[in-house]
Amino acid sequence: NYLLGVGRADCTGPVAQVPLMGYANPEQVAGGLLTRLYSRAFIVADRDDSRRVVFVSADIGMVSQRVRLEVLERLKSKYGDLYRQDNVILSGTHTHSGPGGYFQYTLFWITSKGLIRPSLNSIVNGIVKSIDIAHENMKRGRLFINRGTVENSQINRSPFSYLANPASERSRYSSNTDKEMVILKMVDEDGQDLGLISWFAVHPVSMNNTNHLVNSDNVGYASYLFEQDRNKGMLPGEGSFVAAFASSNLGDVSPNTRGPTCANTGESCDNPQSSCPVGGAAMCMAKGPGNDMFESTRIIGHNIYSKAKELYEKASQEVTGPLSSAHQWVNMSDVSVELNATHTVKTCKPALGHSFAAGTIDGAGAFNFTQGSVEGDPFWDQIRDQLLGEPSNETKACHKPKPILFSTGEMTWPHPWHPDVVDVQIAAIGSLAIVAVPGEFTTMSGRRLREAVRSEFDSHGTPRMNVVIAGLCNVYTHYITTYEEYQVQRYEAASTIYGPHTLSAYIQLYRGLAKAIATNTTQGLPRGPEPPFFNVSNLTLLPSLGVERAPANKTFGDVLQEARRQYRGGEVAEVTFVGANPRNSAENATEHNFLTVERYTNTSGSWQVVQNDASWDTRFYWTKGSLNRSNVTIQWHIPRGTEPGIYRIRYSGHYKKRLSIIRTITVPFEGSSSAFEVTAP
């Protein structure tokens, strides 16, 4: 028995003008909202509350070092030494449709337009708030673990790299992806459901790089379905049951199960270069199982959800035993790895290879700098001059056979471009070991790491540990391939920033943590070098929020394009309003709902909210016009089976108003469509 607490809090942030984090495509800028992003926190304490472990899964691309340092600082000022770097794991789901701009290392500023304080703040605040809620709701309960196979939801997107691994190793596995899902079920002592964590390796890239609506992708849809199922009668994002679908070793795993085809000809481009005869790599895109990306997201998300639900309902293996956690900071650019008694190798200063710029079949071409677009911007001009700096001979030799595109470890203006100091961390909850990794391990890298950690526990008297990898934790260091995959230099290998021996170094480090936990010597682990905290307050190329205007004879929230009088289930109700920049709302109101769908109830003579902007059935689009005007279009994709009746769609926002030359204020407003009828399909 343990003390358990679960919590969920909004971490969406600004949903307009901010670049989305994931595909590194500067054109992919937020222009609305499909569904809210949440941080989900789980706290486990032992019976006498002497030890605690916190696991957080947030609907963001990855946890950045800046996010982690700020969260830990906030927790320390609030709770003292209760929550620390060793017992708090922060993991990102790896959605590619969340706001960027929450990084302190320069490389990530290029595609996120710098450091965007409102984006960083909403993530930090959401994570801390979810932990607060879990902390305040601790109760006695039990944990159960279960595992099973998820079919039809992944492909390996670098199969030619995978094939470079030894045949003897590959023959031990039936697939080139890890199909296993591990779930942790939490109930209170009366058997009431509290929450679930699922770990499953798949990229949340069912929404592709043409999408402009903020959302949590396939794993977020799985969370939504599970929470809606358990929190009966509650709106999305409400209710006490919390279901996290966390990332794992997803480095080379795509949900786009129909595989790569040439967008222009429809032919397969499943070749070592992922290239098309006409149009090259940019034309080679993988498609999901649906007719469009929204449907693919739902199909993959539903597959993941239904397996988790089955495993949750059947879970009978109880998790018992002590809690423990181990953490170290490591300078990953300088780790010596003993491969065997006679052979020692080293990691390298970070660098990205040429194939990094090619992208993947889930999203081609990062950093497509076009000629002439950096003119006259001193920030970019200096960065461009930095780019022309040649990698040192030492770095070139260390990374072989990687041809270096960006020698980020040797670029320090205005701050270092990549981290040197990285977190390695394991938390053990009885027989469950959560290995928190700072990036994207490929399928085979993850298998090797799990096996190494398990055998380390075995050899120190702690057999039969369930070892799970939690991905995208604590600091982002791109990819980790095996040594053999690294030789092939596809995207994942080019993005293995600490060189060919990165995986061996991590295996050595995590073995050390596992040994310390198994032998109860975690106090003796060296802390390692503290990561830097750069003094960057707000450095951004985002347009500033100016005073806004409504068209003549109209005011904010007025309807420009009305809904129809009548709809059937399966149709789309759409309304366009005089709008204002949604960033105003993110910066002035937390937990702001941009829209509601309301149903008229005759009995009470009042309108009742049936959907909000966290629903996957609603879409909120913001379009900037000229003369400081903008429009908002709200869609409700009416599900078949929606209860017939009278409905309306409401919009609420904030606009900026000038009071004097030096003072502007933010004014809330709302608008509503006319009533319309929904009839049975």
From TrEMBL:
<feature type="binding site">
    <location>
        <position position="94"/>
    </location>
    <ligand>
        <name>Zn(2+)</name>
    </ligand>
</feature>
<feature type="domain" description="Neutral/alkaline non-lysosomal ceramidase N-terminal">
    <location>
        <begin position="2"/>
        <end position="508"/>
    </location>
</feature>
<dbReference type="GO" id="GO:0005886">
    <property type="term" value="C:plasma membrane"/>
</dbReference>
<feature type="binding site">
    <location>
        <position position="203"/>
    </location>
    <ligand>
        <name>Zn(2+)</name>
    </ligand>
</feature>
<comment type="similarity">
    <text>Belongs to the neutral ceramidase family.</text>
</comment>
<dbReference type="GO" id="GO:0046872">
    <property type="term" value="F:metal ion binding"/>
</dbReference>
<feature type="binding site">
    <location>
        <position position="440"/>
    </location>
    <ligand>
        <name>Zn(2+)</name>
    </ligand>
</feature>
<feature type="binding site">
    <location>
        <position position="479"/>
    </location>
    <ligand>
        <name>Zn(2+)</name>
    </ligand>
</feature>
<dbReference type="GO" id="GO:0005576">
    <property type="term" value="C:extracellular region"/>
</dbReference>
<dbReference type="GO" id="GO:0042759">
    <property type="term" value="P:long-chain fatty acid biosynthetic process"/>
</dbReference>
<dbReference type="GO" id="GO:0017040">
    <property type="term" value="F:N-acylsphingosine amidohydrolase activity"/>
</dbReference>
<keyword id="KW-0378">Hydrolase</keyword>
<dbReference type="GO" id="GO:0005737">
    <property type="term" value="C:cytoplasm"/>
</dbReference>
<protein>
    <recommendedName>
        <fullName>Neutral ceramidase</fullName>
        <ecNumber>3.5.1.23</ecNumber>
    </recommendedName>
</protein>
<keyword id="KW-0443">Lipid metabolism</keyword>
<dbReference type="InterPro" id="IPR038445">
    <property type="entry name" value="NCDase_C_sf"/>
</dbReference>
<keyword id="KW-0862">Zinc</keyword>
<dbReference type="Pfam" id="PF17048">
    <property type="entry name" value="Ceramidse_alk_C"/>
</dbReference>
<dbReference type="InterPro" id="IPR031331">
    <property type="entry name" value="NEUT/ALK_ceramidase_C"/>
</dbReference>
<feature type="domain" description="Neutral/alkaline non-lysosomal ceramidase C-terminal">
    <location>
        <begin position="511"/>
        <end position="678"/>
    </location>
</feature>
<feature type="active site" description="Nucleophile">
    <location>
        <position position="254"/>
    </location>
</feature>
<dbReference type="GO" id="GO:0046512">
    <property type="term" value="P:sphingosine biosynthetic process"/>
</dbReference>
<dbReference type="InterPro" id="IPR031329">
    <property type="entry name" value="NEUT/ALK_ceramidase_N"/>
</dbReference>
<keyword id="KW-0479">Metal-binding</keyword>
<dbReference type="GO" id="GO:0046514">
    <property type="term" value="P:ceramide catabolic process"/>
</dbReference>
<dbReference type="Pfam" id="PF04734">
    <property type="entry name" value="Ceramidase_alk"/>
</dbReference>
<keyword id="KW-0746">Sphingolipid metabolism</keyword>
<dbReference type="InterPro" id="IPR006823">
    <property type="entry name" value="Ceramidase_alk"/>
</dbReference>
